[in-house]
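Write out the 3D structure for:
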Amino acid sequence: MRILAATTAAALLAGPAAAVVTGGGLTGGTALSNGGVFQIIAPPTAVGQNNFDNNNVRAFNEVQGFTLPSALTTNLGGTIAAGTKINSHYMNFDPGPSRSVTGFATFDQPVIGLIWTRASLMASHYLGAPGTSYLNPSAVGFETSQDSASFSGNMVNFRLTASNPGDSWRVITLAPAGDPNAVPEPSSWAMLIAGLGLVGAVRRKRRVTVAA
Protein backbone atom coordinates (compact mmCIF):
# COMPACT_ATOMS: atom_id res chain seq x y z
CA MET A 1 0.00 0.00 0.00
CA ARG A 2 2.92 2.35 0.77
CA ILE A 3 4.31 1.75 -2.72
CA LEU A 4 0.97 2.49 -4.37
CA ALA A 5 0.50 5.74 -2.45
CA ALA A 6 4.03 6.95 -3.15
CA THR A 7 3.75 5.99 -6.82
CA THR A 8 0.44 7.85 -7.19
CA ALA A 9 1.90 11.03 -5.70
CA ALA A 10 5.06 10.81 -7.79
CA ALA A 11 3.09 10.23 -11.01
CA LEU A 12 1.07 13.37 -10.43
CA LEU A 13 4.11 15.49 -9.64
CA ALA A 14 6.35 14.17 -12.42
CA GLY A 15 6.05 14.50 -16.19
CA PRO A 16 7.83 15.51 -19.37
CA ALA A 17 9.42 18.92 -19.77
CA ALA A 18 7.32 21.86 -20.90
CA ALA A 19 6.92 22.25 -24.66
CA VAL A 20 9.46 24.57 -26.24
CA VAL A 21 10.80 26.04 -29.45
CA THR A 22 13.52 23.59 -30.48
CA GLY A 23 15.15 25.34 -33.43
CA GLY A 24 14.74 27.24 -36.65
CA GLY A 25 16.57 29.02 -39.42
CA LEU A 26 16.44 31.68 -42.10
CA THR A 27 16.45 30.49 -45.69
CA GLY A 28 16.27 33.71 -47.73
CA GLY A 29 15.51 37.41 -47.92
CA THR A 30 17.41 40.63 -47.35
CA ALA A 31 17.50 40.05 -43.59
CA LEU A 32 19.54 36.88 -44.15
CA SER A 33 21.89 38.55 -46.65
CA ASN A 34 22.47 41.32 -44.09
CA GLY A 35 23.53 38.97 -41.32
CA GLY A 36 20.18 38.00 -39.81
CA VAL A 37 19.85 34.75 -37.86
CA PHE A 38 17.13 32.80 -36.07
CA GLN A 39 17.25 33.16 -32.29
CA ILE A 40 15.57 31.38 -29.38
CA ILE A 41 15.54 33.92 -26.56
CA ALA A 42 14.32 34.25 -22.99
CA PRO A 43 11.08 36.23 -22.66
CA PRO A 44 12.04 39.91 -23.10
CA THR A 45 10.87 42.76 -20.90
CA ALA A 46 8.90 44.20 -23.84
CA VAL A 47 8.02 43.30 -27.43
CA GLY A 48 5.95 44.83 -30.20
CA GLN A 49 7.32 48.25 -31.11
CA ASN A 50 10.90 48.57 -32.37
CA ASN A 51 12.34 46.83 -29.32
CA PHE A 52 15.08 45.07 -31.27
CA ASP A 53 15.76 46.88 -34.59
CA ASN A 54 17.97 44.18 -36.13
CA ASN A 55 17.74 41.55 -38.85
CA ASN A 56 17.09 38.56 -36.58
CA VAL A 57 13.91 36.54 -36.18
CA ARG A 58 13.27 35.72 -32.52
CA ALA A 59 11.13 33.13 -30.74
CA PHE A 60 10.40 32.68 -27.06
CA ASN A 61 8.12 30.49 -24.96
CA GLU A 62 5.05 31.83 -23.17
CA VAL A 63 2.57 29.94 -20.94
CA GLN A 64 2.90 26.17 -20.88
CA GLY A 65 0.39 23.43 -20.14
CA PHE A 66 -2.44 25.97 -19.97
CA THR A 67 -6.04 24.78 -20.05
CA LEU A 68 -8.08 27.16 -22.19
CA PRO A 69 -11.00 28.56 -20.16
CA SER A 70 -12.84 29.42 -23.37
CA ALA A 71 -12.48 28.71 -27.09
CA LEU A 72 -9.45 30.33 -28.74
CA THR A 73 -9.84 31.65 -32.29
CA THR A 74 -6.70 31.49 -34.41
CA ASN A 75 -5.95 33.02 -37.82
CA LEU A 76 -4.75 29.66 -39.12
CA GLY A 77 -5.94 26.45 -37.51
CA GLY A 78 -9.54 27.37 -36.75
CA THR A 79 -11.04 27.50 -33.28
CA ILE A 80 -9.34 25.59 -30.47
CA ALA A 81 -11.95 24.26 -28.06
CA ALA A 82 -12.25 25.30 -24.44
CA GLY A 83 -10.63 22.75 -22.15
CA THR A 84 -7.74 22.07 -24.55
CA LYS A 85 -4.32 22.12 -22.87
CA ILE A 86 -1.97 24.21 -24.95
CA ASN A 87 1.44 25.86 -24.98
CA SER A 88 2.01 29.34 -26.35
CA HIS A 89 5.10 30.71 -28.10
CA TYR A 90 5.78 34.17 -29.54
CA MET A 91 7.78 35.10 -32.63
CA ASN A 92 9.03 38.49 -33.75
CA PHE A 93 10.82 40.03 -36.73
CA ASP A 94 11.78 43.64 -36.04
CA PRO A 95 14.33 45.01 -38.52
CA GLY A 96 15.33 48.66 -38.57
CA PRO A 97 15.04 49.47 -42.28
CA SER A 98 12.56 47.43 -44.32
CA ARG A 99 13.76 43.84 -44.80
CA SER A 100 12.34 40.60 -46.14
CA VAL A 101 12.87 37.15 -44.70
CA THR A 102 11.84 33.54 -45.22
CA GLY A 103 12.48 30.81 -42.70
CA PHE A 104 11.11 28.21 -40.34
CA ALA A 105 10.82 27.33 -36.66
CA THR A 106 10.43 23.91 -35.04
CA PHE A 107 8.69 22.89 -31.80
CA ASP A 108 8.75 19.72 -29.73
CA GLN A 109 4.95 19.41 -29.87
CA PRO A 110 2.46 19.58 -32.77
CA VAL A 111 1.46 23.08 -33.88
CA ILE A 112 -2.33 23.56 -33.87
CA GLY A 113 -2.76 27.28 -34.53
CA LEU A 114 -1.17 30.59 -35.54
CA ILE A 115 -2.32 34.07 -34.49
CA TRP A 116 -1.12 37.16 -36.36
CA THR A 117 -3.78 39.89 -36.60
CA ARG A 118 -3.71 42.80 -34.18
CA ALA A 119 -7.14 42.05 -32.70
CA SER A 120 -6.41 38.35 -32.27
CA LEU A 121 -3.01 38.95 -30.71
CA MET A 122 -4.41 41.47 -28.24
CA ALA A 123 -7.25 39.10 -27.33
CA SER A 124 -4.77 36.29 -26.65
CA HIS A 125 -2.17 38.22 -24.63
CA TYR A 126 -3.39 36.35 -21.54
CA LEU A 127 -1.20 33.56 -22.92
CA GLY A 128 1.86 35.81 -22.73
CA ALA A 129 5.01 35.27 -20.72
CA PRO A 130 4.87 36.67 -17.17
CA GLY A 131 6.94 39.85 -16.94
CA THR A 132 6.80 40.64 -20.65
CA SER A 133 5.00 43.80 -21.78
CA TYR A 134 3.17 43.32 -25.08
CA LEU A 135 2.99 46.66 -26.85
CA ASN A 136 0.14 47.20 -29.28
CA PRO A 137 0.85 49.79 -31.98
CA SER A 138 -1.58 49.98 -34.87
CA ALA A 139 0.51 47.60 -36.98
CA VAL A 140 1.23 44.94 -34.36
CA GLY A 141 0.98 41.46 -35.85
CA PHE A 142 1.74 41.13 -39.56
CA GLU A 143 2.33 44.56 -41.06
CA THR A 144 1.11 43.81 -44.58
CA SER A 145 -1.24 41.43 -46.36
CA GLN A 146 1.79 39.94 -48.17
CA ASP A 147 3.14 38.51 -44.89
CA SER A 148 2.31 34.84 -44.46
CA ALA A 149 2.93 31.83 -42.24
CA SER A 150 1.88 28.19 -42.33
CA PHE A 151 2.41 25.07 -40.25
CA SER A 152 2.68 21.33 -40.67
CA GLY A 153 3.36 18.92 -37.84
CA ASN A 154 5.92 20.51 -35.51
CA MET A 155 7.12 23.15 -37.99
CA VAL A 156 6.10 26.72 -38.83
CA ASN A 157 7.20 28.34 -42.10
CA PHE A 158 7.09 32.11 -42.63
CA ARG A 159 7.61 34.69 -45.38
CA LEU A 160 7.67 38.28 -44.13
CA THR A 161 8.53 41.86 -45.03
CA ALA A 162 8.73 44.31 -42.13
CA SER A 163 10.15 47.62 -40.98
CA ASN A 164 8.52 49.44 -38.05
CA PRO A 165 7.08 48.31 -35.65
CA GLY A 166 7.98 44.80 -36.91
CA ASP A 167 6.03 41.56 -37.39
CA SER A 168 4.82 39.51 -34.43
CA TRP A 169 2.83 36.29 -34.28
CA ARG A 170 1.82 33.66 -31.74
CA VAL A 171 2.26 29.91 -32.19
CA ILE A 172 -0.02 27.49 -30.31
CA THR A 173 1.08 23.91 -29.72
CA LEU A 174 -0.56 21.01 -27.90
CA ALA A 175 0.59 20.53 -24.32
CA PRO A 176 2.36 17.21 -23.74
CA ALA A 177 0.50 14.73 -21.55
CA GLY A 178 1.38 15.11 -17.89
CA ASP A 179 2.99 18.54 -18.38
CA PRO A 180 4.40 19.46 -14.93
CA ASN A 181 3.62 23.13 -15.57
CA ALA A 182 -0.07 22.47 -16.18
CA VAL A 183 -2.55 23.26 -13.43
CA PRO A 184 -3.83 19.86 -12.18
CA GLU A 185 -7.47 18.98 -12.62
CA PRO A 186 -9.54 18.81 -9.38
CA SER A 187 -9.63 15.01 -9.58
CA SER A 188 -5.83 14.93 -9.82
CA TRP A 189 -5.51 17.15 -6.76
CA ALA A 190 -7.84 14.80 -4.87
CA MET A 191 -5.73 11.78 -5.83
CA LEU A 192 -2.53 13.59 -4.85
CA ILE A 193 -3.89 14.66 -1.45
CA ALA A 194 -5.24 11.17 -0.78
CA GLY A 195 -1.94 9.58 -1.75
CA LEU A 196 0.15 11.91 0.39
CA GLY A 197 -2.28 11.47 3.28
CA LEU A 198 -1.94 7.70 3.04
CA VAL A 199 1.85 7.97 3.07
CA GLY A 200 1.63 10.14 6.19
CA ALA A 201 -0.73 7.71 7.91
CA VAL A 202 1.60 4.77 7.22
CA ARG A 203 4.56 6.73 8.62
CA ARG A 204 2.62 7.63 11.78
CA LYS A 205 1.63 4.00 12.25
CA ARG A 206 5.25 2.94 11.85
CA ARG A 207 6.36 5.41 14.52
CA VAL A 208 3.69 4.14 16.95
CA THR A 209 4.69 0.52 16.32
CA VAL A 210 8.39 1.25 16.93
CA ALA A 211 7.55 3.15 20.12
CA ALA A 212 5.48 0.23 21.40
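Residues 186-211 form the longest helix (26 residues).
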